Amino acid sequence: MPRNDTTDFLAAFAVGTVLGIGATLLMRPEPSPKERVIRQLKPYRKELKRGYRQVRGGVGRGAEATGEFTGELIDAGKELLGEFRGEVAGILADARDELKELARGGGRDAARAARRAGRKLGL
Questions:
Q1: CB neighbours of residue 98 within 10 Å
Q2: Residue 29: helix, strand or coil by DSSP?
Q3: For 12-40, b where at least 16 C-beta lie within 10 A, e where not — what string?
Q4: For 4-58, what is each residue's pLDDT tens digit?
Q5: For residue range 67-113, what is the model confidence (pLDDT) as tens digits?
Q6: d(Cα 14, Cα 98) in Å, to the nearest integer?
Q7: How far is CA 83 from CA 74, 87, 91, 94, 109, in A?
């Protein structure tokens, strides 16, 4: 009979263990999507940190290069604007001179000179 009791005890123990494990698994809360993603990315954390450091350094170097390039562009823009202002000033000076000649010449010569000046200016 003791052998029969031992078998019953082991069977009851095994059934209890299986039921306990099943209940634990059923009662366990479902992990949130955030927790699942964190668990899946855990092995890649070190690699992600290294990549982040590399990107951060690259962005810093890129910002410096962009700053230098922007300064060069601003200087070139100022130079072009200065040249453009000089051209406009020259055109206006020529137009004033021609208008003065027109005012002095009068009549038919003035109309002819006005047409000539208009053609020069693209009008």
A1: 17
A2: coil
A3: eeeeeeeeeeeeeeeeeeeeeeeeeeeee
A4: 778 888 888 888 898 888 888 888 888 788 888 888 878 888 887 888 888 888 8
A5: 888 888 888 888 999 999 999 998 888 888 887 777 776 656 666 77
A6: 114
A7: 14, 6, 12, 17, 34
Q: What share of the chain is helix, strand, coil (3-state, %, to 5)?
A: 95, 0, 5
Q: Which of 93, 98, 123 is nearest to 113 (CA)?
A: 98
Tokens of 34: 């955030």
Residue 114, Cβ density class (10 Å: 0-12 exposed, 13-18 middle, ≥19 buried) = middle
Residue with token string 């020069």: 120
pLDDT at site 109: 65
Q: Round to whole Å and give the CA distance between 26 and 41.
A: 25
- pTM flag (> 0.85): no
Quote the distance between the C-alpha of residue 101 and its chain's center: 58
pLDDT at 1 over 60: no
